[in-house]
Amino acid sequence: MKKLRDFLIIGVAVATATAFASSAIAQKVHGPKSSTDSPIDPQQPAGRSALRQTVQNLCVLNWQQHHNPAPCQRVFLADPRDGDSGYAVLAAPGGGAHYLLVPTRTMAGIESSELLDPDAPNYFAEAWHARDLINAFVGHDVPRTVVGLAVGIAQSRTQDQFHVHLECLRQETFNALRASADNIVDVWSPITIAGSTYEALRITADALDGSNLFELLATLGADARHHMGNYTLVVAGMQFRNGPGFVLLTGTGPSGEILLDSTCAVAGAGG
């Protein structure tokens, strides 16, 4: 009976991952669909809620019942009995050195007011701690200076569940940040990367546990505070002259995921 149960769990996980990946690939080729393009099959995650359903209905339940996070890589629950109390990390559709950190509670996106709750998990900090997954994919330790995190703007998303992208930086992004490192300070200032202008802010720290990046975004101005969904957030690891840190990038132009690269070529991972 246990073998049959495990077989069924694995079968659902594989089917889910395949469907989720196929949906993502189709969106890249044909563009994002509206939430009414296809009905949601409650038996299999699909459409704009696929990510949320995968985490809540598969990863969390499998973790609570069998201490197995599949089809996710990891599940953390502050209260093991409360499925809404943590986050999951899973491989992104399309493969490569690309992972998603997803809250286990329902949360639409960067505009969600829960992100400003001081008691909420620090999702960016936890995503940064999960970068060992990139090391494992590449096959060696990857420098902090080539790792990036991103949250897209509401208008560009194809999944209605908040998530943080964990990938390497594109070579062009890495080069621009390294060239501008001495000019990035602890107040918002403009920077041009890949032909687009972002606002940049220096964070001097080895990790992100002491920083609420959504509160920092709100300091940009009234529009950012009241219309956070119009802004993207990108975090890149840095090594400044005075020690390790991060640069926080934001803007209302291109969504920040375009600054990242799932091939991790900048770290010598190849194509």
Q: Look up the CATH topology of the largest domain.
A: HIT family, subunit A
Beta-strand residue fraction: 15-25%
On the 0 to 100 scale, the average pLDDT is 86
- Considering DSSP H and I runs of 4 or more, what fraction of the residues is helical? 25-40%
Shape: globular
Question: What is the end-to-end distance?
Answer: 43 Å
Question: What's the story with the biggest beta sheet?
Answer: 10 strands, antiparallel
Unreliable spans are 1-42
Q: How many distinct folded domains?
A: 2
The CATH architecture designation of the largest domain is 2-Layer Sandwich
In short:
The chain is 30% helix and 22% strand. The protein has 271 residues and is an alpha+beta fold.
Protein described:
It is a single chain. With 271 residues, the protein is an alpha+beta fold. The protein has two domains: 100 residues, no CATH class; 134 residues, HIT family, subunit A, CATH 3.30.428.30. The protein is built from seven helices and ten strands.
What's the topology here?
Layout: H1 2-30, H2 50-66, E1 74-77, E2 86-91, E3 99-103, H3 123-129, H4 132-138, E4 147-151, E5 164-169, H5 171-180, E6 189-193, E7 196-203, H6 213-218, H7 222-226, E8 232-240, E9 243-251, E10 260-261
Antiparallel strand pairs: 1-2, 2-3, 3-5, 4-5, 4-8, 5-10, 6-7, 7-9, 8-9
